[in-house]
User: What shape does this take?
Amino acid sequence: MTKSGETTRIRYDEGCLAAHALNLIGDRWALLVVRELFFAPKRFQLIRAGLPGVTASVLTARLAQLREAGVLIHDATQGLYALRDSGRALLPVLEALCRWALLMPGHDHKRFISPSALMISMGVNLTRDPIGTAAPRAGFDFGAERFTMQVDHPQVATRATAQPDAPFLLKGSGNAMAIAVYGPTPVAQLAAQRVIAAEGDLAAAQDFVDLFRLEAHAAPATSTRAEFG
Assistant: This one.
């Protein structure tokens, strides 16, 4: 939904439910704002860090629109934006878009990948059952954001945390971590080449990333689950 001054303008004047949804979250950047807030509340600048190319004024407008639509809330005291349940309910939409994108040519993995984008992507691209270890866990450290991920096939449970709890910890940018997860080069070699940093059980790290593959596949019944608290 766009606004002109103080007047809300409906983008699609239809009774279609899809059109109604797009009137609420169809503006540019809106769904990506939801993506950035999916795992944890964030302040304005951290949201913006995950959205290269968005201007401060546009992001301010999108946050205001999503708040008006009931998708997120803003705690002015702490300066935090957080998703409401209606915002978290958009996860299947983001996942469906990821799966659809796998079918379409032209994806450039060298462009910027935010930590939240990679975490959601991994939920979509779990393609194998864990071998040996029940519900293996991984730690990811992107600097400003850290996560613990646990695989209990077919679910991927991901939790934002100050201190990841896992047998190993991978450190790097979203793009570097995507290379470790989806690329052919072994984790130990990427660490030796300083593409990423790695701590702990690197054999477990390799077994974990081998569960994921960036390719078109049938959608599972369930995938990513964010954990809170």
Remarks:
- Residues 99 and 216 are 7 Å apart (CA to CA).
- DSSP finds ten helices and eleven strands in the chain.
- Residues 56-68 form the longest helix (13 residues).
- The chain has a mean pLDDT of 91.
